[in-house]
Amino acid sequence: MAIECPIYLTADNTQQWIDAFARQYPHIKVLDWQHASRPADVRYAIVWQPCGEFFQRFPNLEAVFNLGAGVDGILCHPQLPREVQVIRLENAGMAAQMNQYFAYHIMHFHRSMDTYQRQQSQQHWQSHPGTPAGDFRVGILGLGQLGSSVADCLFKLGYKVSGWSQSEKYIEGVQCFQGADQLNDFLQQTDALCCLLPLTDNTRDLLNRHTMGQLPAGAVIINAARGEHLVEDDLLELLDSGHLRGAVLDTVRNEPLAADSSLWRQAGLIITPHCAAQSWIEPTVKQIGNNIDTLLAGKTPTGLVERNRGY
Ligand code: NAP
Ligand code: GLV
To answer: Which CATH class is domain 94-271?
Structure first.
């Protein structure tokens, strides 16, 4: 008999996920969480930002699959039981999307597209000499599944790449820094700061007046992790003062961004609506389905979150 696996989504495409599981894993009966016929028998669930009462409904849950890479939206749930395993997406098609997102924006600044857009608005025709990619220093905060992929992609495009992580890393062509002690050294040699950290107590508000002030004058920031990494008022101040040349925010503290937010109108700021890398159905279903089979076989799944460290 198929096992019932409830799904909770914030988007309105639940049926597409149910159909994809039915096609690929007919022995896993994914169904809308409100339609679970035997909630006490449910061992595994699939969620994105579940509502308040979700965990009370399934008292014997053993593992919950997060429909994204970042688990901040589930770890903050007040009713998430301590003993439930949290399993996140690892890449699942997102690394390639992140590579494209960062390559696009890095080239935007490196090839002076911000300057040319401004010139166009002034009907001003003037070319600038430009610099080799190897002279443009890109620094990546977070060298995990996504950050290490972006680092490798940008290195292969010829950029001078460095990265910062919690533990020591070795990535070909990438200068690796680690730990709080090396953060300032890392920032001081970064022209384009890319954020791909998980949101934890240690990384919330990490991009503030002090840390962004360590970047060389004229640096740019691209945040595609979480809005709460960045103190938005500090960013606006550093853009206005000219210390920062520009920024790209794919995530903001309050999503969706309110129509009256001053971020929309800030010169030098590009906003995208949390779309840098999305959880596409086919690769996501494959990863979660394989992991459910792993759990059913009594083995350890991949992507297990360390609850104490928060990612
Ligand atoms: P990951 O594999 O867990 O990698 C996280 C990286 O951050 C690791 O290298 C880790 O260091 C480092 N790190 C964590 N805390 C740190 C600290 N206090 N100091 C220094 N380094 C620290 O995560 P991922 O799969 O790459 O995803 C990263 C984040 O991207 C997600 O958490 C999510 O918020 C965001 N995201 C955004 C979108 C979007 O569309 N905007 C899409 C997907 C994901 P160690 O390797 O040493 O542990
Ligand atoms: C998206 O933001 C994710 O964490 O996968």
So the answer is: alpha beta
For residues 34 and 239, what is the distance between their CA atoms, to the nearest angstrom?
A: 47
Cα–ligand 1 centroid distance for 214 (angstroms): 21
Three-state secondary-structure class, residue 151: helix
Q: Give the Cβ contact number of residue 134 at 10 Å.
A: 9
Please, which residues have CB within 8 angstroms of residue 311's CB and are 6 or more apart in sequence?
Answer: 70, 71, 144, 198, 200, 305
Average model confidence (pLDDT) for the chain?
Answer: 97
Q: What is the pLDDT of residues 169-204, one digit of tens each?
A: 999 999 999 999 999 999 999 999 999 999 999 999
Q: Are 310 and 198 in contact (CB under 8 A)?
A: yes
Distance of CA 174 from the midpoint of ligand 1 (Å): 17
What CATH class does 3-92+279-296 carry? Answer: alpha beta
Atom of ligand 2 nearest to the CA of 68: 5
Q: Say whether 226 is catalytic.
A: yes
| Nearest ligand to residue 225 Cα | 1
Q: How far apart are CA 308 and CA 311, in angstroms?
A: 8
pLDDT digits (tens, 9 = 90+) for 210-252: 999 999 999 999 999 999 999 999 999 999 999 999 999 999 9
Query: 13-36: per-residue pLDDT in tens?
Result: 999 999 999 999 999 999 999 999
Query: Domain coordinates of the chain in residue numbers?
Result: 3-92+279-296, 94-271
In this structure, are residues 150 and 196 in contact, taking their beta carbons and an 8 Å threshold?
yes
Q: How far is CA 187 from CA 39, 172, 200, in A?
A: 50, 20, 20
Supply φ then ψ for residue 192, to 5 degrees. Answer: -130, 110
State if residue 223 touches ligand 1 by the CB under 6 angstroms criterion.
Answer: no
CB 69 within 8 A of CB 89: yes
Residue of 34, 38, 33 lying closest to 3 (CA atoms): 38
**Residues in CB range of 270: below 8 A, 6 or more apart:** 105, 108, 246, 247, 248, 249
